[in-house]
């Protein structure tokens, strides 16, 4: 194809002396060399039919010509097919080798694209002007892979302008060259070699090309999915979700923007259910999936999240930690962690220690805030802190183990099947289960369901006397008993003198003075199994482990 435009008339341009506008005029060139022009209306052909008529006296080849439909601002190039029938066909579109991408924008289809000598779309705006100046016939020529050709025609073709979205306003009567050569696709389908047709049941998976028996066949178009042999719009699939604007595959789910409802495709139907994030989760969209995601240091499905950080020494033990020492754990409510002493090498391991007494180096006759927040050295003598003990013992079910060493250096232990304390509002009230061990006597159940008392907070249940002052410690004291006769025997170390009487507020006091100056002030566990009935203990510790 020559790289120029053929024009079948003489066109000259001159400047209008009275302005800056270019005027197009037509004139016949005279051999006499006359110096005047004959002005007349622009003489560009309005379509290829007029090109054919204008050039009838010369060879009228099929190629690119200039045309200018009525009302169109400027002449433009068009490919004229003058080899078909009697010629004069204005070609609107040609596709041959798939060398030009037709998946384009509105603007591209409005203005046109491609190459007139090969594949192109002339442009909707040009087609609108063309088809609205006369009555036109539309002819569509096809050639299949076998080289067979056929065509169809519509005897009255016209489209609207851009304001009307280039709507096909007329087609007229339809004729076909050879009906046997055309395969018509059902509604919402096109004849294509597309291999990514999808179904309502599995909208995310393309139909495999290996399942096709022919290279080209009818497939669902655009946003249509196949269901039971038919192509239907997305929103007619049973598992279509309005908010998502797409279809769920069987077993897939969709969570709404507030993470309050979950839609699941089951048995080709949408099942709606309420949905709520865990306190340790965030509603978010990640990798295209919106749901509840567990926060950092937690794991789970978002509705339920469990900490991946150790909540106690037992979780450390299970994860492989086997040495005694101070470690950081993360009980419920303590995201920054707390330090505790973990007993890993004895008694089965995994024990979280919250009390130890081995010397008189740490004073345990302290106030409420000290016992609330904790004091001492975690590696040595200490009280962990009631606020931490409360958090730990209310996140799981724990057992309590108390290890003792009496004044003869003999070791004993007591185990309580359950152990917990309430919060500060309830004064860290004690709750213990059944007792076992070799201490001989259960000396903590007597104080069960009692609130914690210190020298500056008297919660023993008796308004006229302060058991914490009498026993010089912080403990779950019970309202006191008194005896009119006060024995001088050292076996009764749990008595403390009060004038001519002796009083006591329990049979155990592991937070009393390490070396009591008077009776009743010692740390003690009163039992006939221990030396001197458990008075003047050398060592105690208290620790918990999940049941």
Average pLDDT value? 86
Largest sheet: 10 strands, antiparallel
Helix percentage range:
under 10%
Computed structural class: mainly beta
Work out the strand percent: 25-35%
> How many helices does DSSP assign?
7
General shape: rod-shaped
Distance between the termini: 91 Å
Low-confidence stretches: 1-41
- What is Rg? 48 Å
Query: How many strand elements?
Result: 40
Describe this structure in words.
The structure is a single chain. This protein is mainly beta and 547 residues long. The protein contains seven helices and 40 strands. The strands form 13 sheets. Strands 26, 27, 28, 29, 30, 31, 32, 33, 34 and 40 form a ten-stranded antiparallel sheet that branches. Strands 9, 10, 11 and 12 form a four-stranded antiparallel sheet that branches. The protein is rod-shaped and about 145 Å long. The two termini are 91 Å apart. The relative contact order is 0.06.
């Amino acid at each position: 194809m020559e790289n120029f435009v053929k024009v079948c008339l003489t066109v000259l341009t001159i400047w209008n002396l009275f302005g800056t506008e270019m005027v197009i005029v037509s004139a016949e060139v005279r051999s006499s060399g006359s110096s005047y022009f004959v002005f007349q209306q622009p003489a560009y052909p309005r379509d290829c039919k007029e090109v054919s008529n204008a050039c009838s006296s010369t060879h009228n080849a099929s190629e690119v010509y200039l045309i200018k439909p009525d009302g169109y601002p400027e002449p433009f190039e068009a490919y004229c097919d003058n080899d078909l029938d009697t010629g004069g066909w204005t070609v609107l579109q040609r596709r041959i080798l798939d060398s030009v991408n037709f998946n384009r924008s509105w603007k591209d289809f409005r203005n046109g694209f491609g190459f007139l000598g090969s594949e192109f779309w002339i442009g909707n705006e040009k087609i609108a002007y063309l088809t609205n100046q006369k009555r036109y016939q539309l002819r569509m020529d096809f050639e299949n892979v076998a080289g067979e050709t056929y065509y169809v025609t519509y005897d009255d073709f016209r489209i609207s302008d851009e304001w009307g979205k280039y709507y096909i306003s007329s087609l007229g009567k339809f004729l076909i060259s050879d009906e046997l050569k055309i395969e018509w696709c059902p509604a919402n389908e096109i004849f294509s070699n597309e291999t990514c047709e999808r179904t309502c049941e599995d909208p995310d998976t393309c139909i495999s090309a290996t399942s096709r028996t022919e290279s080209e066949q009818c497939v669902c178009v655009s946003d249509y999915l196949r269901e039971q042999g038919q192509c239907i719009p997305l929103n007619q699939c049973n598992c279509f979700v309005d908010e998502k604007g797409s279809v769920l595959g069987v077993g897939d789910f969709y969570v709404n923007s507030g993470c309050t409802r979950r839609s699941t495709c089951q048995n080709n139907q949408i099942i709606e259910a309420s949905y709520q994030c865990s306190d340790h989760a965030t509603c978010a969209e990640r990798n295209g999936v919106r749901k509840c995601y567990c926060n950092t240091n937690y794991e789970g499905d978002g509705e339920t999240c469990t900490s991946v950080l150790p909540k106690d020494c037992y979780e450390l033990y299970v994860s492989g930690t086997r040495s005694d020492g101070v470690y950081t754990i993360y009980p419920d409510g303590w995201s920054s962690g707390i330090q505790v002493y973990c007993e890993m090498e004895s008694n089965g391991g995994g024990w979280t220690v919250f009390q130890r007494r081995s010397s008189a180096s740490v004073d345990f006759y302290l106030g409420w805030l000290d016992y609330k927040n904790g004091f001492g050295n975690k590696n040595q003598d200490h009280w962990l802190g009631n606020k931490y003990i409360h958090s730990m013992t209310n996140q799981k079910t724990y057992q309590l183990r108390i290890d003792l060493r009496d004044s003869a250096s003999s070791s004993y232990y007591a185990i309580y099947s359950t152990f917990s304390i309430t919060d500060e509002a309830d004064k860290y009230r004690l709750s213990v289960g059944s007792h076992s061990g070799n201490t001989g006597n259960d000396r903590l159940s007597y104080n069960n369901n009692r609130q914690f008392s210190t020298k500056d907070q008297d919660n023993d249940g008796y308004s006229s006397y302060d058991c914490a002052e009498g026993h010089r410690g912080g403990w779950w004291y019970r309202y006191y008993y008194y005896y009119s006769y006060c024995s001088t025997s050292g076996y009764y170390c749990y008595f403390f003198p009060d004038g001519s009487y002796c009083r006591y507020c329990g049979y155990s006091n592991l937070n009393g003075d390490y070396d009591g100056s008077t009776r009743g002030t010692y740390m003690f566990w009163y039992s006939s199994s221990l030396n001197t009935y458990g008075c003047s203990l050398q060592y105690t510790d208290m620790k918990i482990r999940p049941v």
